[in-house]
Design goal:
- The protein is of the alpha+beta class.
- The chain has helices at 17-25, 28-37, 94-104, 125-133, and strands spanning 40-46, 58-59, 61-63, 70-74, 88-92, 108-113, 121-123.
- Strands 3-4-6-7 form a four-stranded mixed beta sheet.
- Helix 1 (17-25) runs antiparallel to helix 2 (28-37) and helix 3 packs across helix 4 (125-133).
- The longest helix is centred in the C-terminal third of the chain and has 11 residues, at 94-104.
- It comes from Microbacterium kribbense.
């Protein structure tokens, strides 16, 4: 039996095709453009409250057990998120990412995009902020 979509409910697409294409070229300017014009998939420790648009959830970050360095992992598509990460994801805008990096950029040492592939990329928070501000 074929599954049916509920009428009236829009299915969220947890991906940014432009970001996936930009990661393929490894071009920071293209990545920044894609981030400014589409959502970013962010793993969440705790999803946001559905009835409170101000609650975007609690972002999951990776802390290296040996060095203590913190990395922010972002994804172009929820299917690229490794299964070992929290199961919840959020879709966040460029404005959210800019504000998050502005608030936590001193603690975060690196930002990884699609860390498990197919086209992983790494950037320093300051470089990403500069690219988003350009």
């Amino acid at each position: 039996m074929a599954s049916r979509k509920k009428r009236g409910k829009k299915q969220l697409d947890f991906r940014n095709v432009q970001l996936a294409d930009a990661l393929q070229t490894q071009d920071m300017a293209a990545v920044a453009f894609a981030l400014r014009h589409g959502p970013t998939v962010v793993p969440l420790m705790r999803p946001g409250a559905r009835d409170d648009p101000r609650d975007s959830g609690e972002v999951w970050t990776y802390r290296d057990p040996e060095s203590g360095e913190i990395a922010l992992l972002l994804f172009s598509d929820a299917v690229h998120k490794p299964e070992m990460l929290p199961s919840s994801v959020g879709l966040h805008s460029a404005a959210w990412l800019r504000a998050f990096l502005g608030a936590h950029g001193d603690e975060i040492t690196t930002v990884f995009f699609d860390i498990a592939g197919p086209h992983p990329m790494q950037a320093a928070p300051a470089d990403l902020i500069a690219a988003l501000d350009a």
